[in-house]
Amino acid sequence: MTQPFFDRLTDQVRTKKTPLVVGLDPRWSSLPETLKSVGDSLAEKAAAYRDFSIGILDVVAPLVPAVKPQVAFFEQLGWQGMQALAEVIDHARKLGVLLVMDGKRNDIGSTAEGYADGWLGESSAWRGDALTVSPYLGDDSLEPFVQVASDRAAGLFVLVKTSNPGGKMLQDLTADGSTIYQHVGGLVERLAADSAGACGYGVTGAVVGATYPEQLGELRALMPHTWFLVPGYGSQGGTAADVAPAFDANGLGAIVNSSRAIIFAHARDEFANLDWQQAVEAATRKAIDDLSSVATIR
Ligand SMILES: O=c1ccn([C@@H]2O[C@H](COP(=O)(O)O)[C@@H](O)[C@H]2O)c(=O)[nH]1
Q1: Does Hydrolase appear among the keywords (predicted)?
Q2: How many Cβ atoms from other residues are within 10 Å of residue 269's Cβ?
């Protein structure tokens, strides 16, 4: 019997001794030139995205608990991109690194069932260990995801407080005396508390941006059964000090994503003497070291 996702994540974070997650966000304009030596048809771009992502996986799988493929960049290339994503997922599974699919899906409940099966269902080629979902269609839209995730020992990360500057336009509005992100956080925490496993965390996690450290601390206190996925560290300006409030007393309860700062490290001056995979490894180790100063994992 497979352990619940957040129990597996806890084990992986303890084994790898880091909360760092590497984001797989291939972008044609930033790819190493050696991978772009072919043409730029959709098929050729998809093959380059596959090779790039697999090359990253080979480097980071022994170092980090999970990777976060950004579905948008694969969807952008149509069916060839989705084929490439399936191959990347397959490779990650063989390497034993957990997969957080960043798709930010949702719809009315009956349609949400389709998304849940497509991204978490046993027979899907795009099955992740966890999926990001939007809360803005309400509690009934989350139910199919919770059901499938519970049945499949998968996890969810619901958007609560996103890292982008414009997120506050809606998420910080006040209704019935609380902000929208506090209401969403309360809903996610109730679902997590109802399903908490051996590690103390439930089936629903929350996305909370590193760019809002004050709210990270506030939500950590409000959401003790909810694991956080923290994007915005690195390229968006979030620092190790900013993400420090996301962790619980055991240095657990949060994973911290970094995408561009790691996968395109070959373009950083400090790694200019390295090939692109060596640069990925150096940037990953640097981020692990940086985060170790704020998350003491027990
Ligand atoms: O609030 C959010 C939710 C998701 N993201 C995603 O995370 C990565 C961040 O990439 P970086 O290169 O490390 O900035 C990307 O896939 C976003 O779509 C987010 O940034 N903020």
Answers
A1: no
A2: 6
Whole-number Å distance, alpha carbon 72 to ligand 1 midpoint, is 11
ipTM, 2 dp: 0.99
**65 contacts 12 by C-beta, under 8 angstroms:** yes
Mutation probe of ligand 1 site: the residue of 75, 216, 243, 257 with most atoms within 8 A of C-beta: 257
For residue 96, CA distances in Å to 65, 85, 126, 257 come to 9, 16, 16, 18
Q: How far is the CA of 68 from the centre of ligand 1 (A)?
A: 10
pTM score of the predicted model: 0.97
All structural domains of the chain with their residue ranges: 5-292
How would CATH label the architecture of 5-292? Alpha-Beta Barrel (3.20)
Counting from 1 in the atom list of ligand 1, the atom nearest the Cα of 235 is 14
For 173-295, where are the E strands, in sequence order?
174-175, 178-179, 204-208, 228-230, 254-258
61-72: per-residue pLDDT in tens? 999 999 999 999
